[in-house]
Specification:
α9 crosses α11 and α9 runs antiparallel to α12. The protein is globular. The longest helix is centred in the last third of the chain and has 39 residues. It folds into two domains: about 70 residues, no CATH class; about 250 residues, MetI-like fold. By secondary structure, the chain is mainly α. Helices cover about 70% and strands about 0% of the residues.
Length: about 400
């Protein structure tokens, strides 16, 4: 397994390198530049010349690419923090919390592999819990780290690209995680129930709605939810239940805890639902097809012939194998949170990475566009590896030796 993971990481690095080159060349060939707006003012010639030299826009394309690539993977100069400072390259750590989080996640990893639990649910639980624990530990540790890469400064004058992206990542994470949880809680049970009630009225209605949701563009879904659940619902009931723009109320800081939770929910519901609807349709269709395939298998007929309760046959024997195709979908959805939220964040005015990306494209902000694309690509590569590992956990027939 270890050699397989290393091999996949090497292939992933090659893929990311090719992706960066293709995207950079496409941006260069798209026409226009970050200084086009300044060129409309004849008095800005001196500023244009200065920025052209500073940003290296007068260099050959390949030289610009290799300069960007070198800076992209180089740690930036940062001020070492007070307190406990661990020098590793140019990383400074404030306090001991990051070390405790990482060591705790490592200890949990070792403990789960040493634990001898002879239960069928243990292996999938261990896999998903490891992903959750490590993701949470790294996310929390980052807030205590003084670390950044030289992703350059935004051509729009917004400062370092690294700070801009990580400043907006929290909003995107909140939106994407909520949408993913909604999709999992609704889509998978819906697919299971449709498979159990195959060809029933509920199954036919669910299938129709799934195809409609899956084939509808995300911007139509987003605008439709705004009209139906905000505009018309307020018109019919006289009560404003949901907001269609922003992430919180201007008076958010002065609200009580419960009022803050309600305000977040009213702003978050519609954009999260817009993203989740397509995933719900996808999960339900794949889960239904996978469950039907498993339920007609020989080993499941044998389990039924032994007189096992129907509930146990479905939950213990059928569901585990039927979840295998969903693993890939969920893994790629986690990596595609930013990509899936790009249009939705723009429509709902959500201050996340997707909205930042659209603004960067409009301003021909090369550093920001490249950083967002590479972040999405790296997430997809990593989550593909995670999906392959989970395959081995869920299906004992899969071997990577």
């Amino acid at each position: 397994m270890g050699s397989y993971i290393i091999r996949r990481l090497v292939y992933g690095l090659v893929t990311l390198l090719a992706l960066s080159l293709v995207v950079f060349l496409l941006i260069q060939a798209s026409g226009g530049g970050p200084l086009d707006r300044l060129k409309l003012n004849p008095r800005m010639r001196g500023v244009i010349a200065q920025l052209t030299e500073e940003w290296g826009l007068d260099k050959p394309v390949m030289q610009q690419y290799f300069t960007w690539l070198k800076n992209f993977v180089t740690p930036a100069d940062v001020r070492a923090a007070d307190g406990l400072t661990v020098l590793f390259g140019k990383i400074g750590i404030r306090g001991s919390m990051p070390i405790i989080l990482i060591l705790g996640a490592g200890a949990y990893t070792v403990g789960t592999f040493l634990a001898k639990v002879a239960k069928p649910w243990w292996r999938p639980f261990r896999a998903f819990s490891l992903v959750f624990v490590w993701f949470t530990a790294i996310w929390l540790a980052k807030s205590r780290l003084v670390f950044s890469l030289s992703w350059g400064d935004s051509f729009r004058g917004d400062g370092p690209v690294w700070d801009n992206i990580f400043g907006a990542a929290g909003a995107t994470f909140r939106l994407g995680l909520t949408a993913l949880i909604l999709a999992l809680l609704i889509g998978i049970p819906l697919g299971i129930y449709q498979a159990i009630r195959q060809y029933s009225f509920f199954d036919q209605v669910g299938t129709t709605l799934s195809f409609v949701a899956f084939s509808t563009p995300i911007f139509i879904i987003a605008v439709g939810t705004q009209l139906l659940f905000a505009l018309y619902l307020e018109k019919w009931t006289g009560v404003k239940l949901f907001f269609v723009a922003g992430m919180s109320d201007p008076s958010y800081a002065s609200l009580s805890f419960l009022a803050r939770m309600g305000d977040v929910a009213r702003h978050l519901t519609l954009p999260a639902l817009s993203i989740a609807l397509i995933s719900i349709a996808t999960y339900s269709r794949f889960q239904r097809a996978s469950m039907l395939e498993v339920m007609h298998s020989d080993y499941l007929r044998t389990a039924k012939a032994k007189g096992l309760p129907r509930r146990r046959v479905i939950l213990k024997h059928a569901l585990r194998n039927a979840l295998i195709p969903i693993v890939t979908l969920v893994s790629l959805d986690i990596a595609g949170i930013i990509g899936g939220a790009i249009i939705t964040e723009s429509i709902f005015g959500w201050p996340g990475v997707g909205r930042l990306y659209i603004q960067a494209i409009d301003a021909v902000d090369y550093p920001t566009v490249m950083a967002v694309v590479m972040s999405i690509g790296a997430g997809i590569v990593v989550m593909n590896i995670v999906a392959d590992i989970l395959y081995g956990v869920l299906d004992p027939r899969v071997r990577y030796d």
